[in-house]
Amino acid sequence: MSEIKKFPEGFLWGGAVAANQLEGAYKEDGKGLSTADVSPKGIMSPPDFSMKDFNLYHEGIDFYYTYKEDIALFAEMGFKSFRFSIAWTRIFPNGDEQTPNEQGLEFYEKVIDELVKYNIEPVITISHYEMPLALVKNYSGWKSRKLVAFYENYAKTLFTRFHKKVKYWMTFNEINVVMHAPFTGAGLLFEEGEKNDQDIYQSAHHQFVASAFAVKVGHEINPDLQIGCMIASMLTYPYSSKPEDMLAAVMQDRKTLFFSDVQARGYYPSYMKNYIEENDINIVMEDGDLETLQENTVDYIGFSYYMSFVASTEPEHLKAQTSGNLLAGVKNPHLKASEWGWQIDPVGLRTVSNQLYDRYQKPLFIVENGLGAVDKVEEDGSVNDDHRIDYLRAHIQEMKKAIADGVDIIGYTSWGPIDLVSASTAELKKRYGYIYVDRDSKGQGSNKRIKKKSFNWYKNVIATNGEEL
């Protein structure tokens, strides 16, 4: 392998956020309630429909009102792209309306125009960890086939309004989250310990079809649109060279790759057909569903990468668990972990990039990667986050090596370029940003923006197109 000196020309450096984690203004300008609005403890906790508990998602970091100031800071860093999501409930408050809420469309038009003003490419996630709460209450979430048409109308509305200004789109954020957090991923409600595969896989099928319809309608409106899927990558290593561990790792990886297989290849893989049959799962499909999936595959693979996992068949290894994004796993003795127990594995980013590109031969877009940590403002007002710089540098170096391996990577939007509310814990103590937000997990603080040490570091990375790390 010959080491490359530069990332490709036009590489989309930037950052990524989600509407429900930073906008706030959760009831304003016609917005309806979403699943995030009743999840005060994060995506892995049961919802609180009473809404009695304080919920930081309701306030976020006030981006709804500070977007111009924040985008100006992203522009100062030299962002080439900015990935954000649209809150479904700002456009269709209940999800099943035919006519969109114009105030919601106008807000996102202003955000897009602000990005375009600075030559920042908008990258939009259509549905990111939130959906209208009314669709849960009135239709039982994505278990209902009716949501396919509601989502198609929503996506069509966005494409029609923004297709001349927005080229890059993703249909669902971390679509495989339905397996691990069914309420967040699909609006599914289960009693504790009663999660069932039947509802989960039926809901996943409806999302696959909805995603394919979005690809179809998007390309009909504008053939130049690039519409991708987005998965939470869960690269799994065998704990040892024991053949059973290797097989366990392959089986674990398939739980993630199934979701990209359907959207990128356009069909249910044989291993999943076998699993469905062996577990008496009956996925109800309508005539034409399989053709829709086959004819409307995604243009690129978007994915998040924070850590790797380990599979073992030895009971004593299974006892040593570590936490992570969406699910816990066996502790890897060769890796260090973040303050939240997420194992830090930069080489895994190169590995998973090769895995996905070898499998699909479609461009990859790394749309989430970052370090959640406690940051401290010093007496002189500085925030020295060398730990974050070290983390990002190591991952960008491995991304560079993946490109040298021949992998087509079009961009890198690190997670949370500005501190925002954590998805997993609904707190602000766990910070990811290059920009510190003076607000705590109780919503207290001046909301002032402060550049961290990583701000100028990332600015230089972008300015040199990844040459200086």
TrEMBL record:
One of its GO terms (cellular component) is cytosol. Belongs to the glycosyl hydrolase 1 family. This is 6-phospho-beta-glucosidase. GO terms for molecular function: beta-glucosidase activity. The keyword Hydrolase applies. GO terms for biological process: carbohydrate catabolic process. Keywords: Glycosidase, Hydrolase. It comes from the Bacteria.
